Amino acid sequence: MGTKHTRIADDPDDPDDLLPAESVLSLEEYLEMQAAIGNRTRFEIVYRLSRTDELTPTEFESMMEIDDSTLHYHLNELRDVGLIEKRVRTERDSEGLYTYYRATILGDVILEHGVEELLRREWAFSEAYDSSEH
Predict the structure, then answer these.
(1) Checking CA distances to 49, which of 25, 78, 110, 113 falls within 20 to 30 Å?
(2) Residue 53: is its pLDDT beyond 70?
């Protein structure tokens, strides 16, 4: 039976063996993160957070033209899988805002080495498979 080329010589045959026994997260948790960022709205939230220190729900609503309940649903989904975190100030700032969100390290990593890497490679893919030049 043929196999695809392997990127790492020691890739296991069973996906359950991809992580070391002392892994911080389980395979299921990593897959949940991947599924969460696979949604267009959640991808945009993490993308925007990875390029700023933090944003408030009000800032998201104006940037993304998204209603409050939909935004909070997606923020909660991303928090549940550990891709973003919420910071609450004990006192409101001058604009009355006190809740802020920021990307976690895992959020930055899954974005940069997952979805964004695929998007960066799109240029190379399209050039490699462009039949109009042949």
Answers:
(1) 25
(2) yes
